[in-house]
User: Fold this.
Amino acid sequence: MTMSVSLELLARHDKAGPRYTSYPTAPVWSERFGPSEFIDEIRRTNALPHPPPLSLYLHVPFCNTLCYFCGCNMLVTRDQEKMARYAACLEQEIERIAGLLAPRRPVHQLQWGGGTPNYLADELIERLVRTLRRRFVLADDAEVGVEVDPRDSRPGQITWLHGLGFNRLSLGVQDFDPKVQQAVNRIQSESLTRRVIEEARAAGYQSLNVDLMYGLPYQTVDSFSRTIDILIDIAPDRLAVFNYAHVPSLKRHQRLIPVNALPPPAEKLRILKMAIERLTGAGYVYVGMDHFAKPDDELCRAQRAKSLYRNFQGYTTKAGCDLYAFGATAISMVGDCYAQNLKELEAYEAAVLAGSLPTHRGYRLNADDRIRRHVITRLLCDLEITKADVEARFDLLFDDYFATELHHLARDAGEGLIELNAGRIVVTEAGRLLVRNLAMEFDAYLREESADQPLFSRTV
Ligand SMILES: C[S@@+](CC[C@H](N)C(=O)[O-])C[C@H]1O[C@@H](n2cnc3c(N)ncnc32)[C@H](O)[C@@H]1O
Ligand code: SF4
Assistant:
């Protein structure tokens, strides 16, 4: 795929905007939604004649060292007791939620994220796995994934994790260039990364993902091109190439990033363009919003079948599940509600130990939210919207309901980002890179706010 898109056009659209892992996005949620509102929704959905299957997420916030760029909800610590206390609270939270659910609802997806789940002591990992298995029924073909930092992977750990039932692995790499690694305080040799990947292949994991990042200090087209060369040679099933979100007002440690060394916007765009061209040239499909996968990967198959879905972990092939998330900051998505847990470890643990659900804030979608969530999800996953589908699903006339949005989109169509047909709205090749901006046109809450959102990262 040769990107014919103009860098000038991309630069013009570069503004702050959400990544739409939820709609409405988190700033819209409220603390008026707490444990009792969440329990109401859990009970309501669980009592449906056919309650949906489950997707579970476990948040392990701990890391061994600080990557200066990090935007995740994490805590650097070496305190084994602290980690053990947290794991014990996770177990209690799992027990409490499981107690509210019918025992035979199958789990289609189980994901451990962080922070760095594999930094947790082996006995804690094992105990948590046992608790989950005791309280939930995993479907035979369940996806069981874990995020792994190769630097924390003890020899044999990857094989051991596979033995525990993990069948998908996601590895953080970011960039192989020594100067970049030095500047972001993440020294990770190519040989270490290759060792972990070889171990994963030998163990028989079904799917291997690698995370890269562009927009980091000292990155250039040439330097990142060498990282891409290595990745093409390693050939993981999936690749995420994240746009570095620099939000030092929210993540104070990002002030340690040497801002003068950040690639200027034009160079950053050239890096992205190069990465897309090289990866698609090597046979990867650009699924959309940072993600690449081999054509026979489920992600691509789901996209072709229009069954791809988006949640807090990014793209997923398991649509239609209720997502229960455990741990500090974790976000559940159940029925028509979002519910986020307390952020601070101490507050999260205190709530769990007090016998309550640690819900800190949340949101119940109204009728308009549900329509817009569907439209934004289809746009981000299928890169097109079929008007008849929305009309049938929600009993409305698309062109009337979205008259204002279509008026705004006409401008994007004029710039070649989108095609507005009678029955369909289709994102063009250039529009793929700005699909967040296109989704923003359907966001009812952004219109009410000021033009630039300090709460969100830049879209390009
Ligand atoms: C939880 S980490 C992955 C597991 C493990 N902690 C590690 O780093 O190897 C999730 C991923 O988020 C991405 N990430 C972290 N901070 C980011 C930021 N500020 N902007 C964009 N992506 C970021 C990185 O690619 C990272 O691999
Ligand atoms: S990128 Fe991963 S290892 Fe680095 S600080 Fe963030 S969560 Fe921890």
